[in-house]
């Protein structure tokens, strides 16, 4: 289960999406998420799903690899769907003792499931097609206008990219700790919720120790290389837009415009 988390990983292949400017990919992910929360019809959701499938195809990342990332959020998906399915009032279509399913609840729950799936896939696609260094440069360059407000943009971008980079590292570390504990006779599957929560303690303690040790080693490595923030630093590969980047912006704006327009027309 842990190795199936794709968020924060980078998939090294040559594709159109990999060659795009990281600012385009960051802006594209942000605009796609906005579109997801704007649309309110099945036709619009199908349109956004087709757009995402097209982008996955252009990324040359195997679709099976992308879908693996959904298993890590399966519990959150089921929890969100269950709350909307059973707690939304409306016209009752099914009842089992205290639990009832309404027509409105079924509609909202199914849309919530599709929205969460597309959200996870689109966010994973960005990190799979962008290296941590590109993410840092893209965020710093894209938010450079906020420097006029004396905000530490370089440091914020650095922290966000390090946090994303540490996700697969901590997942791998957790997997190693769990296997080591299981080899010593630990049981993480049997028992109730309280028992399973207690069984996680032998994992969390060494995981936190390892995380703090890695953070200390990273800080020591940055300090030994005289890292003092972004002031006066130059880029080995300065970012610059190309024709494909402008065309990508145009495509994203068209998708967003169509998503906004779908709210003003009657769609099934």
Automatic annotation (TrEMBL):
InterPro entries: ABC/ECF_trnsptr_transmembrane (IPR003339), ECF_transporter_component (IPR051611). GO terms for cellular component: plasma membrane. It is found in: Membrane. Keywords: Cell membrane, Membrane, Transmembrane, Transmembrane helix. The chain crosses the membrane at residues 29-56, 68-87, 108-129, 149-171, 246-265. It is a multi-pass membrane protein. It comes from the Bacteria. This is Cobalt transport protein. It comes from Oribacterium sinus F0268.
């Amino acid at each position: 289960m842990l190795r199936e988390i794709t968020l924060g990983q980078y998939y090294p292949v040559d594709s159109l999406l990999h060659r795009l400017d990281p600012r385009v990919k960051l802006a594209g992910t942000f605009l796609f998420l906005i579109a997801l929360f704007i649309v309110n019809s099945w036709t619009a959701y199908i349109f956004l799903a087709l757009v995402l499938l097209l982008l996955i195809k252009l990324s040359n990342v195997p679709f099976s690899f992308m879908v693996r990332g959904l298993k890590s959020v399966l519990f959150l998906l089921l929890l969100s769907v269950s709350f909307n399915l059973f707690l939304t009032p409306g016209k009752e279509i099914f009842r089992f003792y205290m639990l009832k399913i309404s027509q409105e609840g079924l509609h909202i729950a199914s849309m919530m499931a599709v929205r969460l799936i597309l959200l996870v896939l689109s966010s994973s696609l960005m990190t799979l097609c962008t290296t941590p260094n590109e993410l840092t440069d893209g965020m710093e360059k894209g938010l450079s206008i906020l420097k006029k407000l004396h905000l530490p943009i370089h440091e914020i971008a650095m922290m966000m990219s390090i946090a994303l980079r540490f996700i697969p590292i901590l997942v791998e570390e957790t997997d190693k700790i769990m296997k080591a504990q299981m080899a010593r006779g630990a049981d993480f599957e049997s028992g109730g919720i309280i028992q399973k929560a207690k069984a996680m303690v032998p994992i969390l303690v060494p995981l936190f120790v390892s995380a703090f040790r890695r953070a200390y080693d990273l800080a020591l490595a940055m300090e030994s290389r005289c890292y003092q923030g972004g002031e006066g630093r130059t880029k080995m590969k300065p970012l610059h837009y190309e024709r494909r980047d402008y065309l990508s912006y145009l495509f994203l704006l068209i998708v967003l415009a169509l998503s906004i327009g779908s709210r003003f027309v009657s769609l099934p």
